[in-house]
Amino acid sequence: MIDIQNYIQTVALRDVKCYAFHGYYPEEQLTGIYFSVDVVVTFTPNTDTENLERTVNYEILNNIILDEMKNTRKMLETVVKSILDRVVNNYPFVHTADVGIKKLNPPMPGEIGHSFVQLSYRSANS
User: Fold this and answer.
1) Which of 82, 1, 3 is nearest to 37 (CA)?
2) Partners of 124 in beta bridges
3) Does residue 2 have a pLDDT over 80?
4) What would the 3-class secondary structure string for the chain be?
5) CA distance 121 to 39
6) Which terminus of the chain has fewer Cβ atoms in its 10 Å neighbourhood, N or C?
7) pTM (2 decimals)?
């Protein structure tokens, strides 16, 4: 028999598109821009794999993302940390969590696909 403790489960949302008003400069907070958010978590799965209460619910992850993206902030670092803190608070059993935000076509000279900020969490117990 295989020990469930040897498994690591990943639950993720990738490329969640949001229109938001984050930016250091006042004009960015007036005009807004598109962002893309990724959240990836890992944890040891429970043996009851059919129970939504015993896993990370990506609907909850989506709600956290959309909620935090509504709160205009100057720095993406602040938004990333707020999302990550809420994920870890909702799911204290996670081993790792990564949150990244891409600012799509940032308003700078040249053709830039996106800027990117990411923050990672690692549990002391993993």
Assistant:
1) 82
2) none
3) no
4) CCCHHHCCEEEEEEEEEEEECCCCCHHHHHHCEEEEEEEEEEECCCCCCCCHHHCCCHHHHHHHHHHHHHCCCCCHHHHHHHHHHHHHHHCCCCCEEEEEEEEECCCCCCCCCEEEEEEEEECCCC
5) 11
6) N
7) 0.92
Task: Residue count of the chain, please give it.
Answer: 126
- The pLDDT score that the predictor gives to residue 111 is 92
Q: Which of 1, 10, 65, 77 is nearest to 42 (CA)?
A: 10
Distance CA 124, CA 126 (A): 6
Give the pLDDT of residue 54: 79
Residues 6+ apart with CB under 8 A from 75: 22, 24
* Amino acid (1-letter code) at residue 111: E
